[in-house]
């Protein structure tokens, strides 16, 4: 059995479970379930706190895990990122009362509250800055109001929490994070386990299906080269004959977020019957 860690709660949990379901793996229905066996795919899922996942994967007790890049780096575990998943995005930033700090150098000698002490300490060391790091479990924004810290370092998604606390972001971002698949450091070579390769291919298939749509249109042969330049597809677009003299039908995958721009440009070129369909899953 391949042993995979999945976040059991928090910001990453639901979307991690969804992506695994879409990739064809059994997932738990009851949030109290802590282990689930998918016998058909020879995989066992362990639902764990995302902060602990890097530790289990780093020690080799679990083969793979889904966690945040920030949590992986904070843990210092012997694990590496193998696939970014495109959700759970955040930046990790310093914040302070307006007018108190502006650059990382100004943090020297300050008290910095954070739940990610490993990440903050290594960032300060990289910049040659010495400061006191106070590790708290959560709600670190309040530490400034209560006089425990001068600065905080925390996950920022929308920035609403900081605004609400009257704090402003200071200095450069410490890190840009998102959910990632991780493996133990000694085991990052692919090809050693077909179940790992299969999982990666399946998840990649879901990610590509989310990022691309299938575009089909009819265009005059005379404009085909220009049209194909706009819709090069992955290998190359499919060109089929059309029951209309001098016209062809074209089919190609295009990035979902460029769909409307491309459709407008194709229409201007004279293409017609321009249709967009979703891709449910794929193997490229
Ligand atoms: N708004 C957000 N708040 C917290 N973490 C977020 C947010 N958006 C994305 N993340 C990412 O989620 C991961 C943290 O998840 P985790 O479950 O530990 O914390 P959480 O979502 O704050 O849950 P809880 O506070 O209940 O423990 C990190 O990788 C972080 O970058
Ligand atoms: O930029 P935003 O969209 O406001 O999101 C970021 C905030 O959300 C998280 O807190 P959470 O609610 O998880 O509480 P916690 O500090 O107790 O973990 C995080 O620690 C920040 O405080
Ligand atoms: Mg939190």
Automatic annotation (TrEMBL):
It catalyses: 1-(5-phospho-beta-D-ribosyl)-ATP + diphosphate = 5-phospho-alpha-D-ribose 1-diphosphate + ATP. Keywords: Amino-acid biosynthesis, ATP-binding, Cytoplasm, Glycosyltransferase, Histidine biosynthesis, Magnesium, Metal-binding, Nucleotide-binding, Transferase. Its main location: cytoplasm. Residues 209-280 form the Histidine biosynthesis HisG C-terminal domain. Pfam families: HisG, HisG_C. InterPro entries: ATP-PRT_HisG_long, ATP_PRibTrfase_cat, ATP_PRibTrfase_CS, ATP_PRibTrfase_HisG, HisG_C, N-reg_PII-like_a/b, N-reg_PII/ATP_PRibTrfase_C. It is found in: Cytoplasm. Residues 49-204 form the ATP phosphoribosyltransferase catalytic domain. This is ATP phosphoribosyltransferase. The lineage of its organism: Bacteria, Bacillati, Actinomycetota, Actinomycetes, Cryptosporangiales.
């Amino acid at each position: 059995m391949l042993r995979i860690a999945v976040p059991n709660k928090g910001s990453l949990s639901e979307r991690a479970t969804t992506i695994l379901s879409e990739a064809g793996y059994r997932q738990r229905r009851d949030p109290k379930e802590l282990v689930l066996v998918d016998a058909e795919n020879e995989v066992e899922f362990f639902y764990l706190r995302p902060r602990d996942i890097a530790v289990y994967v780093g020690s080799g007790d679990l083969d793979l895990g889904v966690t945040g890049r920030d949590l992986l780096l904070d843990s210092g575990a012997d694990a590496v990122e193998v696939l970014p998943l495109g959700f759970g995005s955040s930046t990790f930033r310093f914040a302070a009362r307006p007018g108190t700090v502006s650059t990382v150098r100004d943090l020297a000698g300050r008290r910095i509250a954070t739940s990610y002490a490993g990440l903050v300490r290594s960032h300060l060391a990289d910049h040659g800055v010495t400061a006191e790091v106070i590790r708290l479990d959560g709600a670190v924004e309040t530490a400034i109001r209560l006089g425990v810290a001068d600065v905080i370092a925390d996950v920022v998604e929308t920035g609403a929490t900081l605004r609400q606390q009257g704090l402003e972001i200071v200095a450069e971002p410490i890190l840009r994070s998102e959910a990632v698949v991780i493996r133990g450091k000694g085991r990052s070579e692919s090809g050693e386990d077909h179940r790992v390769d299969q999982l990666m291919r399946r998840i990649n298939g879901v990610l590509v299906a989310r990022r691309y749509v299938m575009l089909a249109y009819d265009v005059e042969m005379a404009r085909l080269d220009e049209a194909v330049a706009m819709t090069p597809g992955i290998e190359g677009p499919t060109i089929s004959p059309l029951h209309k003299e001098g016209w062809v039908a074209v089919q190609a995958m295009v990035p979902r977020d460029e769909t409307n721009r491309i459709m407008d440009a194709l229409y201007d070129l004279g293409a017609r019957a321009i249709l967009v369909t979703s891709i449910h899953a794929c193997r490229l």
